[in-house]
Amino acid sequence: MALSDLIDHRESTELLDEFAKREIRRATLAAVAIPGYQVPFGSREMPVARGWGSGGLQITLAVVHDDDTVKVIDQGDDDGVNAVNLRRLVTSSTGADESSIASEATLTQSRHRIPEDGLDETSILVLQVPVPEPLRGVERDMRELARMHAEADYSRMWVSLYEDKVRNGVITQSTGYPCLVNGRYVVATTPIPRWDIPRLHDAPFLTLFGAGREKRIYAIPPYTMVEPLTFEDVPFEVENSDGACCALCGKSESFLVSLPNSTTWLCSDTDWCARQRPAT
Amino acid sequence: MGYVSARGGLDAIRAAEKLVRTKRLVSDSNWLEEEQILDKLRLLVDRVMGEAGLWEPQLASKAIRQSEGDATEAVHLLRAYRSTLPRLAYSEATDVNDAQVMRRIVPAFQRVPGNQLLGRSVDYTARFLERTADADAREEAEKLRGAEREIVEEKNPPAEEISPRRLIDLLRDMDMLIDRRRTDDPEPFDITRTPARPPAPRSALLSSMSRADTGALVNQWYRNILGPDGYLHEVTLGEVRHATLPLNVRHPVTGDVVTVTHIRVSEVEAIEDLEGIDEDRTRFDVGYGLCFGHNERKAIAMANLDIACHRDAGHTQLEQSLLLTTDALDSAGFLEHLKLPHYVTFRSMIERKLAVRKMRSNEASTHDGA
Q: Potential cystine with A128: which of A111, A241, B153, B312 (Cβ 3.0-4.6 Å)?
């Protein structure tokens, strides 16, 4: 690459320079090689604010090709404001196509959900991560956190789960449930709901986690063991909706969100929901 | 469906964009020239360049205009623009003793070599809100125009006043200062390429603070004075400077060092009275602060926090606070992300609360039955 190739960016629609993309790809490769390990990277400032998907966006921009098809969701919804905003940044700055159907997309960027279906060995799932550190609830000092991960010393995490169970009768961790990846590193699961956790285990697709503000990338490669931290006699529980079904498609086998009255339920994955309804 | 109308979608975003842009561009007031922002809001321009970590007055003015005066938003615009450009060169190290001062205060002594130079400062200007009619102010401006020329023409101070010797050099001569100067010359830590985490080299701490949000640093300082932390005490300022520095790069073809521009910096040296039981009670130590533009508040806080962090030596989480909690875009972005939809996580939280209730009522009925 000649120097002159690098400097005439005046008319460019690129959001990241090529060196940054290379750096992010290198960090991503390291993350795939060490499942669950948080790889530091020189996170750049994006046209979206930190905390708004800047880490996921950087990964997407670094790995996306012109012939990729991109799906972007927020809370499972392709039409949520943040999903729309990120998708148009990706498609307008690259040659990538877009689709709301997970099985058509080669790359899905998401906040807080895994699509209900459609991800396979050809898929990359990019999850936006607000807080990549799973142990922050039990330890604030980063030097100590680094030691705990290095030595796989997760004892205080286990103690906190035990205390939670003893005090409250159930483990009250709602989303972002801590999981042991490949038997080695505990990770923060973005916050996706517990509903999605079993779908990370032995999944055929590659999941990349991007934390732009905290400047960390981590990964769960395809067919990797992902175990939610729980006790032998305390089974891991996903969200329970007492047999409720979606008011639009009538199904009960997807992750449902309720209206404030708690009597009307809807699929959080809006595209999956639309595909369950009979054609009119 | 009520649910559908609650979804934002592309139309809402486009409408918001149009509203922001139209209201900004179309108004009855005069067009705001970049030159006016550079000239009349110079301290805001300086602050934005400092927090962005980018010396570019013209672009900073554009950013301030586009952000309608929101300094943090302007910083975001500048840094996101910077992300689109490759880094082509690194500047050569500049000796701060090459700086030419426009203002220089040494509170530690009454008279110092090179003199006190109050310069352009409102420190002792009575804070009366000027309610002069515009016409009168303009008339005054015309009268001052001649006088302003005289000020400039008069100004030809001797070399020792332009680049005065530093107080800490005198203190070294008096053997009053602990010598922490290093003989090796390590590459500075580049906080834009490697995330700085404790323990980090001092260059990482200094560059993080230099780019930090002004308000965040002032707050870090004050919470150590009156808040819960107390990891520092007040220093005596050795130097407070507003000065011009050359920015030198090596020419890619000739290999010569060339000055590509001059930057203005605020620079502070803070003299610390060491009083710890394991510290040298016969000498002082010094903290250093430097940031883009005229922003003394930030440079003073930085210098005091620098020496505080050195003395803390990793005993507390002061270093972590300074490295990780003072960036304008990190904190503001994460704070504002709370406005994003959170209904998946919230639904999961409600489910857990109901689960706790159910468990408790089961336990209660078990006890009742027994």
A: A111
